[in-house]
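Example record

One chain of 564 residues, shown exactly as stored in the release files.
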Amino acid sequence: MLGERVIHSEDYIHKYPYDWRSKQPVMIRASSQWFINTKSLVQPAISALEEVTVLPGVYKTPLCETISHRPYWCISRQRAWGVPIPVFYDQYERAYVNSVLTDHVKKLMIEQGPDCWWEADMDTLLPDHIKSEAGLDKSLTYRRGKDILDIWFDSGITWAAVLDSAPADLYIEGVDQIRGWFQSSLLTSVALTGQSPYKCLMMHGFTVDENNQKMSKSLGNVVAPSDVIYGSKTEQKGYGIDVLRWWAASKYSVTNVDIGPAIIKQCNEKLLLLRKRMRFILGNLYDFHSVDILQYEELLPQDQYFLHQLHQYAAKITLLYDRYEMSSVLNELEMFMTKFSSIYSTLSKDRLYCFPVTSRERRSAQTTLHHTLEVILRSFAPILPFFAEDCYMHRYGNQLNLHSESSTTPSIFRSGWFKEIPCWSNTELADKFEFVYSLADKIRCLLENTPTDAFEYIFVTSSENDAYKILMELQEDCGDEELSSHTPLCEVMQCASVKVCLAHDINLSELEYKHHTESLEHGVTVYVRETSCYRCERCRRYTATSATEPCEMCLLNMADTWAG
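Predicted structure tokens for this chain:
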């Protein structure tokens, strides 16, 4: 058309809006819209955010900046579905809206449903008496508006439908809702109530496949939750809802979170490992009732030390839940249960399996397991509700086994949070056991990780120093035995027997020791030698004097059982 009058022509690459569904360019045209002037809401909204906790905290500034740069809000949309904006127009396209009109439309919608705006005739929507009350000219012709409310206005006003005067404890959504739901909820609430609708905002990233690719039906990499729970044609095995919830909690992140068959399988393996460890606890509490619980002062020192660790774990878990750090909750759970399995369950098995049923040693271990169950169950119940309820019902389903606190609570979710017992926190005892465990670790290194159960340990100090006092304290009830096999110290060391003595009380030249190390810590020397005892076929410890008979402790325990 311009022909030779065009001086220069070239392609110019620039940004242009595309429809996200059809992937076609959008034709822009001017149209009449409804707006909210948000300038007067900006400062009150930002002030309200000062009282809101944003997780992660780095997103609080972007949220404030987005609000401060929003001078207006277009709340009208031209679509075939949605909540109508109750506005009437005359034949000159002048708009009419006031409280009389909206109250009448509201009444109709309550009686007939929201579709009455589209389906009812104009005589119903705008009868003559309403025209008179609203001050409308009856000689004009009126029509209903065709605009609907912005869906962000719909979702942003949900707090008014579900909350009382108090704000919600938590709003959780993706980081993209900084410009969406988080903002629209805040603006509407500040406009109508003068306060934020939420106390805390929690944001997360988006789900991608194992190759960090965006999920798309066209790519065929979408993982449906139902496939994880119930199984699918390609992956026949279903893992259940708890595995999916484990994945969701463990993968909580503000960046993209990945999911796929390999990842789900790994989550399932972790849950199975937790099941195995909970089975150990439940299995050893089959004959344990509330009347059998020992007071803290009656527990063995090693059990008191484990309750100290349980107290620390409980405090961490409570704090992490308060911060909504679900992935950290699972990390702490896994680390604690690994420590429980590798250390405490190993130490306590002899007392649980081989000591008399009602003995102090066994009841002390069972009391510790009971408290551990109470804390561990509640620590993972919010994430793994079905597994937690399963364990709870297995433990307390029989009314005869219900302890007093749970006798009226048919579900773990009605039993309350665990109680942190202050006396469990015992730093003085913890320092002693950490010292002893450090000795045990050094001895294992000395033995080059050879199993220690067939060795005798002799700890020697030059004086009655702090180390000697700690070791002797854990040799309680050893009496006049030269080597003791059933003291707390021997249990921690996991050896055949232990002796603690001063250097001037022992003739070192007569010791037929295999290994020794000078000054392990605080002037302690350990002499290690192979035990002359045989392995007891009942308790599997090297404490028997004969290869064909149980050890003395097992004979006594069996005699008590037969006598009972």
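Notes: The longest strand covers residues 455-461.
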